[in-house]
Amino acid sequence: MEKRHEPGRRTVLGAAALGAGAAVLAGAGQAQAAGPAERAAGPAARPAPAGRPDKLPVPLVVGHRGASGYRPEHTFGSYQLALDMGADVIEAGDLVPTKDGHLVCRHENDISATTDVADHREFAGRRTTKTVDGKKLTGWFTEDFTLAELKTLRAKERIPDVRQHNTLYNGHWQIPTFEEVLQWAEREGRRRGRPVWIYPETKHPTYFRKLGLGIEEPLAKLLRCYGRHTAHAPNFVQSFEPSSIQRLGKLGVKCPKVVLLDEPSVKPWDFVESGDPRTTADLLTPEGLKWISGFAQGIGPWLPQIIAQDEQGKLGKPTTLVRDAHAAGLVLHPYTVRNENNFLPLDFRVGKNPGDYGNSLAYFKALFATGIDGLFSDNPDTALLAAEEFRRH
């Protein structure tokens, strides 16, 4: 994703979805791939992690692609730092497939900005132009590489003009596979004596299905192998395409599922492909939210859908979305709050440098005051401090 307390709601994840899914909601080191013996005898023999969604704090903090305000996103350095900071959930995986069908964790299938692929002369001929969800892109794409080839690349900071300090870590970490993420979560869970919550996303699922590289089936298989497909497994699954969430449900994935919401005028790409006339604006209505509650337990709105901004970009008044979503039995985890001025409403910026930190603590608190159940942040430590102060008052 890229855009884009009420008294007594302490156990919202166990109770908010009554009638619409209450049964569901009642390291910096590089991880190593599992060997043949572990794959053959390990995951299937392991007990399912104990999820206890009702025990997650409200509002909860999701480390967006880890702690991507401090480390290159979707690396084990970023994931581990978010966990060490205390993030309640780690968004470990915008999932895209490789040419040979493995799921890897990247912001997009276009890896031009997030890896050093341009420095690899052997892959110069792989640079190409494609149309992904109606947008023409030129670069290098995961679906044109085998996993072994991708493992020769190293991750780098995606927005170096804003996060110059993060470039220190360029080249340090490989691209993680989702199976490596699951193994890392198991190891960290055993070490900490509690489950590590993760929040994977299916990225461009309709596009990949047309290429014969469907995401949902391998995702469901991996979740089953590691006991994370059950109603109380310690993970959420999310997608901007409602049909992807529906497909995961049909594949037996019972953990909490979340529909991500783009800007109001945008159509989910699966709607474009199927001829569904609805836009995101239709899904934001009480009728649209009721429809979502038939197969999902939450929504991931764009921040201005929670508190509108005026034409100048200053914060306005809260919308009715929190009230309407809760009335439909849905939790809300909006995205994405970042500390830098560049990403904050105009009246929360400090100084003129877009890379300097603004008054993000105040913005976090304003969002929490609307009654949201959690949010995504590139800066989990700041979000956790704001959440703690909010709960205290």
Detailed description of the structure:
The strands form four sheets. The chain has a seven-stranded mixed beta sheet, with helices on one face. It contains 15 helices and 14 strands. The protein has a single domain (12-108, 176-392), classed as TIM Barrel (Alpha-Beta Barrel). α9 links the parallel β8 and β9. Residues 4-49 have low confidence and may be disordered. The two termini are 31 Å apart. By secondary structure, the protein is an alpha/beta fold.
**Order of the strands making up the biggest sheet:** 4-3-7-8-9-10-13
Regarding quaternary structure, what we see is single chain
Which series of helices and strands comes N to C?
HHHEHEEEEEHHEHHEHEHHHEEEHEHEH
Largest sheet: 7 strands, mixed
Low-pLDDT ranges: 4-49
Strand content: 5-15%
CATH homologous group name: Phosphatidylinositol (PI) phosphodiesterase
Q: What's the end-to-end separation, in Å?
A: 31 Å
The CATH architecture can be named as Alpha-Beta Barrel
Form type? globular
GO molecular function: glycerophosphodiester phosphodiesterase activity
Catalytic activity: a sn-glycero-3-phosphodiester + H2O = an alcohol + sn-glycerol 3-phosphate + H(+)
InterPro entries: GP_PDE_dom, PLC-like_Pdiesterase_TIM-brl, TAT_signal
EC number: 3.1.4.46
Task: Give the SSE map.
Blueprint: H1 12-15, H2 22-25, H3 36-41, E1 60-63, H4 76-85, E2 89-90, E3 94-97, E4 103-105, E5 128-132, E6 135-139, H5 147-150, H6 178-192, E7 201-202, H7 205-210, H8 216-225, E8 237-239, H9 242-250, E9 257-260, H10 269-274, H11 280-283, H12 286-292, E10 298-300, E11 307-309, E12 315-318, H13 321-327, E13 331-332, H14 360-368, E14 374-377, H15 380-392
Parallel strand pairs: 1-2, 1-14, 3-7, 7-8, 8-9, 9-10, 10-13
Antiparallel strand pairs: 3-4, 5-6, 11-12
Helix pairs in contact: 14-15
